[in-house]
């Protein structure tokens, strides 16, 4: 059964490759344009394996922001991974420490979105099958992420301007986020994050992104608490 679960995850994540390919190529192109050599581009992509954080840190460093600000902004963008991990604990928290460490390294938005939806839709899936399914998801994404980052770094300067890859990032996050906006707190947090990102765009050194993330998390958490209190009061 574990082999079947692995290949199910592999197949279920296939549609995201249409976005992972241009997104990773875009990072390779932008990183080379920012002055990084191929080794630095690949080291960043392999060690971080988080596109949004990589773009955030790269953009801030290009603007001559202090290194600690770039790191703080990248960390703020990646704080959602802690929430993803907490949500996955009931499903894969039984795995050995080494396995969980590898799963944490491989954690990306697509892996979480596909895995958690499948776990919720198939509550009878065994715990071992859930782990195998997760690795199946990432077995497809990782090679494309690494390989297309390298491809973008190598041929980036040869890509004509009319073949812009800028659409990849927004399309990726829309595809991932939209199906997960299932409750009022989720929708409020998403709306507030967009609004605050626009309002705080003038903050120096990319601090507006950090501020927008913090405000959105606070609003989402408060909305969740308010909703739970209302449900408790209305319960018989």
TrEMBL record:
Transmembrane segments annotated in the record for this chain: 12-32, 38-61, 68-89, 131-156, 162-180, 209-227
Places the protein is found: Cell membrane
UniProt KW Lipid biosynthesis keyword: no
Record-linked InterPro entries: Brnchd-chn_aa_trnsp_permease
GO biological process: L-valine transmembrane transport
Topology of the protein relative to the lipid bilayer: Multi-pass membrane protein
Keyword vocabulary terms for this entry: Cell membrane, Membrane, Transmembrane, Transmembrane helix, Transport
Cellular component per GO, a single term: plasma membrane
Pfam families given in the database record: AzlC (PF03591)
Superkingdom to which the source organism belongs: Bacteria
Major subcellular location class: membrane
PANTHER family documented for this protein: INNER MEMBRANE PROTEIN YGAZ
Homology family: Belongs to the AzlC family.
Protein name (record): Predicted branched-chain amino acid permease (Azaleucine resistance)
Native species: Salipiger marinus
């Amino acid at each position: 059964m574990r082999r079947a679960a692995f290949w199910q995850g592999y197949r279920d994540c296939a549609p995201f490759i249409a976005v992972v390919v241009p997104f990773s190529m875009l990072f390779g192109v932008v990183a080379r344009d920012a002055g990084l050599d191929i080794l630095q581009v690949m080291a960043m992509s392999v060690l971080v394996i988080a596109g949004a954080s990589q773009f955030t840190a790269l953009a801030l460093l290009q603007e001559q922001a202090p290194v600690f600000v770039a790191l703080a902004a990248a960390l703020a963008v990646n704080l959602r991974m802690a929430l993803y991990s907490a949500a996955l604990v009931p499903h894969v928290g039984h795995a050995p420490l080494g396995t969980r460490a590898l799963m944490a390294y491989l954690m990306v938005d697509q892996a979480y979105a596909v895995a958690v939806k499948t776990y919720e839709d198939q509550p009878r899936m065994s715990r071992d099958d859930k782990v195998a399914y997760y690795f199946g998801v990432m077995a497809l994404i990782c090679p494309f992420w690494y390989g297309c980052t390298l491809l973008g770094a190598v041929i980036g300067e040869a890509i004509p301007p009319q073949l812009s890859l800028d659409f990849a990032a927004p399309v990726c996050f829309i595809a991932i986020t939209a199906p997960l906006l299932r409750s009022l707190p989720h929708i409020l947090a998403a709306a507030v994050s967009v609004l605050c990102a626009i309002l705080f765009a003038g903050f120096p050194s990319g601090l507006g992104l950090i501020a927008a993330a913090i405000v959105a998390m606070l609003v989402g958490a408060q909305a969740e608490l308010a909703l739970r209190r209302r449900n408790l009061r209305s319960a018989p």
